[in-house]
Design goal:
This protein is mainly alpha-helical and about 525 residues long. The protein has helices at about 10-15, 20-25, 40, 50-85, 90-95, 110-135, 140-155, 165-180, 180-190, 195-205, 210-225, 235-250, 265-275, 290-300, 300-315, 315-330, 335-340, 340-360, 365-385, 395-405, 405-420, 425-450, 460-490, 500-505; strands spanning about 100, 105-110. Helices cover about 70% and strands about 0% of the residues. One of its GO terms (molecular function) is transmembrane transporter activity.
């Protein structure tokens, strides 16, 4: 098998690395329907030096992973700070809560706040598919950089919003431009790393949801100490988030579209970075949009199951990111204490996303098993919050709230399973967008489960709804495991050879078209 053989004479094994990379980005007519990898490595496998491959992976890691972690951390912080902002006066300043006189005594109606949380995800829904397919067609760095700078501007303009209607509009457009980030990251990881490596790398950038829950909470706690100034405390938070995002946006212009055009690698290293992905059959990049792959994706049971997994698993985030500090304050804690109690949840999220990613990179076919196991603490946390006593400074519901942080590794594993089990550039883009469409659905549904009039009964619709959703997650995971395992067993009975494997690797075939593709469980 040529592509994974240890090379003693590397220079004789690897093709000429002086190929015009710009030409690869705009392939000749005979290659336009194929993967651009063919332009520098051809259709035959080539041996590569493991030492050189290790050096290439380190360089890719150092360039991509820290920036991706920072970028997604800013995405999470940007949308989650609404939960802290409402504690700093945004609800009264923008009339996000009203008195409901239909109850006796009158109660607070938080429906506007719920919709403010959900509007972000309506915007993301509108942007996901067009943004993702634009990434396939055009230069990735220029698109991401431009939209991140626009996102920064919209974020800073939140400080100028004076009504709940203005906040609704701001949240919608913020979600629209931010939709570029998660799908771009999933496609980047799929294009630069092998199937075995993807789980750990996906976990690295997604773990920033937990890390920035802690960092963001600490920053917001600091802003909570402000007692003077011409602006409200919540306005300062948005100005800082937007400023940091703009700096990140300038860096994004340097992101390459694929290993073929990775400017931070030498020409020889680009060949190694490309060739080492041949065996996995996932492909690197094809700029031709293919309707046939869309039709296949729409009928693929795997994508439907991944959609169900993500939509059901992420309902918890819709409630926690927008209402988490508000829910904790219900237990009798102060505004600042409620922010501090985000730290344990963020810590669990951060640590276990990284741990599950590491385990997946070391133990084969453990992804879906870990996904199901991580659902169990979330179920326990919801039940503990719901059924425990909510007396002043209650400890049990806070403990339950903290272990809900296991939703982080659940979602990280769904992303990993989804992106590692599709091939064909258009189909990969469709999968990436579909995962985050489901993410949006979960985030839209989550806040709507919170009914302010049921506060005295511990928001039963919320916790029961989340428990049902995580039961759906577990059943869907089991079904996906069965589908993937059955297809792997079928393909194991086929007569295959390494020559055809190498030839088909960069033809931009889907996972169903390419019998050499192996599904990761």
């Amino acid at each position: 098998m040529a592509s994974l053989t240890v090379a003693d004479e590397k220079s004789a094994s690897i093709p000429n690395a002086a190929t015009d990379i710009e030409g690869a980005a705009s392939p000749a007519a005979e290659y336009k329907d194929k993967d651009i990898a063919i332009t520098i490595v051809g259709e035959q496998g080539h041996a590569i030096d493991p030492a050189v491959e290790a050096r290439v992976v380190r360089k890719i890691d150092l360039f991509l992973v820290p920036a991706m972690a920072l970028g997604y951390g800013l995405v999470y912080y940007d949308k989650a700070i609404l939960g802290s902002a409402v504690l700093f006066g945004m609800t009264s300043d923008l009339s996000l809560t009203t008195l409901d006189y239909s109850t006796h005594p009158p109660s607070q109606d938080t429906s506007r706040l719920s919709w403010a949380t959900s509007m972000f995800y309506f915007g993301m829904l509108a942007g996901l598919y067009p943004m993702t397919f634009a990434l396939q067609k055009f230069n990735m760095g220029r698109i991401i950089g431009s939209l991140v700078c626009l996102w920064a501007l919209i974020c800073m303009l939140t400080a100028a919003v004076t009504s709940w209607r203005g906040l609704f509009a701001q949240r919608f457009f913020l979600g629209f431009v931010e939709s570029i980030i998660p799908t771009a990251y999933m496609c980047i990881i799929s294009s630069f790393y092998t199937q075995k490596e993807q789980a750990l790398r996906q976990s690295w950038w997604f773990s920033s949801t937990g890390l920035f829950t802690i960092i963001g909470g600490a920053i917001n706690y600091g802003f909570g100490q402000i007692t003077g100034g011409s602006l409200k405390r919540w306005q300062y938070i948005y100005l800082l988030a937007g400023s940091l995002t703009f700096i990140f946006g300038l860096f994004c212009f340097a992101i390459p579209s694929s290993p073929v055009s990775a400017w931070f690698l030498t020409p020889e290293e680009r060949v190694v970075a490309t060739e080492r992905l041949r065996y996995g059959q996932t492909g690197i990049r094809c700029v031709t949009f293919k309707w046939a792959q869309i039709r296949e994706a729409l009928l693929d049971i795997k994508i439907l199951l991944v959609f169900l997994l993500m939509a059901s698993a992420y309902t918890v985030n819709g409630a926690v990111s927008g209402f988490g500090p508000l829910i904790v304050s219900t237990f009798g804690y102060s505004t600042l204490d409620s922010i501090v109690f985000q730290f344990p949840l963020g810590g669990i999220c951060f640590i276990f996303i990284l741990l599950t990613g590491y385990l997946c990179s070391r133990v084969p076919n453990i992804r879906i098993i870990l996904l199901v196991l991580c659902c169990l603490p979330v179920l326990a946390g919801c039940a503990l919050i719901w059924r425990s006593s909510w007396h002043h400074h209650a400890a049990s519901p806070v403990a339950g709230y903290s272990i809900i942080g296991f939703f982080g590794p659940v979602v990280s594993l769904i992303i990993t399973v989804g992106m590692a089990n599709v091939a064909g550039q258009t189909k990969k883009c469709f999968m990436a967008a579909t995962i985050f469409v489901a993410y949006c659905v979960g985030n839209i549904v989550g806040p709507q489960l919170i009914k302010s009039e049921t506060k005295s009964r511990h928001y039963p619709e919320l916790w029961l709804g989340l428990i049902i959703c995580y039961c759906i997650t577990i059943v869907s995971a089991g079904a996906l495991y069965f589908v993937l395992a059955r297809e792997n067993r079928r393909r194991a009975t086929l007569e295959l050879n390494d020559v055809d494997r190498d030839k088909l690797a960069f033809q931009d075939l889907t996972d169903k078209e390419n019998i050499y593709f192996k599904y990761m469980l």
